[in-house]
Amino acid sequence: MVELVINKSTQLKSIGYSMVMSSETLESLVAKWCKRNVLAVDTEFLRTDTYYPIVGLVQVFDGRECHLIDPQAVSIQPLAAVLEDATVLKVFHACSEDLEVFQAEVGAVPTPVFDTQVAAAMLGEDFSMSYQRLVERYLNVLVAKEQTRSDWLQRPLTDEQLDYAALDVIHLFDVYRLQVEQLNQQDRHSWVIEECTTDPSEMPTMIDPERYFRRIRGSGSLDGLQLRRLQQLSAWRERLARDRDVPRSRIVDDKSLLTICRDDIVDKRLLDKKTKMTHRQIRRYAEEISEQLRLANEDSDASHPEVMPDPTSTLNNRLIRELKGLVEEAAQLQRIAPEMLATRRHLEQFLRSGRQGEYQLPAPLAGWRRSVIGDRLLQHLRNDQ
User: What number of other Cβ atoms are within 10 A of residue 184's Cβ?
Assistant: First the structure.
């Protein structure tokens, strides 16, 4: 059995890292990075009491030099040039929140992107492999976890924090090179790039508030009027959270929101009895909640959102099971994580399309997935009609 390397300090010593504390230095580095083909990028941030993430550190490794940018010492705005440079591939791990960091702080969404978590799933590993497990799997290195939850807004940052942050992107670059080699052997590199292409309008902090209700777990159990209430209330909450820069749950949590919309709760006593809202939240938001419900209840039936398939429906349960079986067969054949091919949410979206008379593949099942599983799912549903 090969012994795991617990501390790759020799690599850190040979590469080293520098702190970026001035605009001149950052602008010079950005000009250099725009001439590179690939950059490993990571961010350290805090998001406990705010809607938008607060960046504490940005790490960049170009395969030769590692730099740690301190956002408290210098504006990271110049990074926009390289983040949006289509000739430079940006490598991340589980990048959704990193993208939100850059969108919020720089106003730029990195593109093109290579997500090593997505690549791992494409190569048959777990669907949501953690960074620690990824590095252990590909590099045989154990990553220390002590700094994962540390305070990245404190100053000064400790040597342990800085070493951890630098190794994050150094390891990431090494993993990327190994994954690319395997992906090219299987002709799946383009799949990863396509899967990592982000539509800014679909990012949680950028999505149209009127569409956010579809992201709330449990919304599939609501009828048309209840969904309209949820749409109205979640849009109100989204705008308020963004305007005040507070977490959504600080206003009203998802479960309470569902209960309010299902039972049409406008009474303060019932809010206290039936939801998880605090007394402070009820005092502060009860009247606004009542007003949003009134607006939703007065809308015509034509304005009600499309009702999702009933999760208790015998027909839908049967079809979901059949489709999942096809997905699992294809995943086994392709040696890929089944969730990477299609999630239950994708399949339910697919079933909803049949209400217009003929099934249509939703966007998540088109693209590279179409030839792998999409056409087969489509044929199965058409044969079932």
Answer: 11
